[in-house]
Amino acid sequence: MITGIYAIKDAKSTFMPCTVDVNDATAVRNFEHAVRQPDSLLASHPNDFALYKLATYDNVGGYIEPLNPPRQLCDAAQCLVKE
């Protein structure tokens, strides 16, 4: 199965640790959920964080194909507007 490798970029520092998700839609949904947590750093500084897709991962063959450059899927401020 081909899945995606994603990471949140902090505008004030670097990319956070990567996660693997089934597809872009579920990665965005999980990011939106994290942003909407009232006590989260993402919610308190939404202009500093964005979700990026870094690569695709084939878990059958073990291959990783990087996206160069990484592709931004959404930012935290956009997630809060949807409420």
Description:
The protein has 83 residues and is of the alpha+beta class. The protein has helices at 24-35, 41-44, 76-81, and strands at residues 2-10, 19-21, 49-58, 63-75. The protein is built from 3 helices and 4 strands; from the N terminus they run ββααββα. Strand 3 (49-58) and strand 4 (63-75) form a beta hairpin. The protein is elongated, with a radius of gyration of 13 Å. The relative contact order is 0.26. It is 27% helix and 42% strand. The mean pLDDT is 94. Strands 2-1-3-4 form a 4-stranded antiparallel β-sheet. The chain has one domain (2-81).
| Average pLDDT | 94
Distance between the termini: 33 Å
| Number of domains as seen in the coordinates | 1
Uncertain regions spanning at least 5 consecutive residues: none
Query: What's the SSE pattern?
Result: EEHHEEH
Strand element count: 4
Which percent range describes the beta-strand content?
A: 35-45%
User: What structural category do the secondary elements indicate?
Assistant: alpha+beta
Q: Helical stretch count?
A: 3
